[in-house]
Amino acid sequence: MAITQEELKLQVTQQDNFVERLQAEKKVLLNKVRQEGFELGVRSSSKLSYKEFRHFERVAPLASALDDEVLDYLWSFLDLKDYPQDARLDADFAYLLEVDPQSRVIFAQGWLEGVLSVWQTIKAQVENVQ
C-alpha cells in the first residue's frame, strides 16, 4: 500500500509538470498570436485615414472588453480597406485563430496595438499642421 501511495504521488507530480508545460506552451502560442496581430496592424496601417487613426486611439481602452467575434469585424474592416487577404496571415498560422476564441481576441488586440504604434510614431508630424 505504501508503494501504491508513492506511485500516486509521483503521478500527481508528473501531472502537475504536464499541466505547467501545457500552460507554458499556451502562453508562447498566445504571444505569437499577439505578435502576428501586431505585425498585421503595422502593415495594414498604411490603408488607414486620419479619422480612423483617431477613432482607434479613442477606442483603445475598450480593447480589453473585446469578444471572439471581433476578428470577423476586423476582416470586414480590412476588406473595406481593400487590404489583400493573402497579406493578412500566414496559412500555417491561421489555424490558431480557428480553434481558440481567446486567440481571436488577442490577435485583434495585437492588431490595434500595431496600428497605434504606427500612429504614435507619426502623430506629432501629422498634428503639426502649419
Can you describe what's shown?
The protein is an all-alpha fold. The protein has one domain (34-127). 77% of the residues lie in helices and 0% in strands. The protein has 5 helices and no strands. It has helices at residues 2-44, 50-59, 70-80, 91-99, 101-127. The chain is elongated. The mean pLDDT is 88.
> Tell me, what's the shape?
elongated
Which structural class should the secondary elements be placed in?
Answer: mainly alpha
Whole-angstrom Rg: 21 Å
Major sheet summary line: none
Please report the number of helical segments.
Answer: 5
The SSE order reads HHHHH
Spans where pLDDT lies below 50 across 5 or more residues: none
Chain-averaged pLDDT: 88
The N- and C-terminal alpha carbons lie at a distance of 85 Å
Please estimate the helix content: over 70%
Number of strands: 0
Domain count: the total is 1
Strand content: under 5%
Keyword list:
mainly alpha, 0% strand
Give the secondary structure arrangement, pairings included.
Layout (H helix, E strand, L loop, with lengths): L1 H43 L5 H10 L10 H11 L10 H9 L1 H27 L3
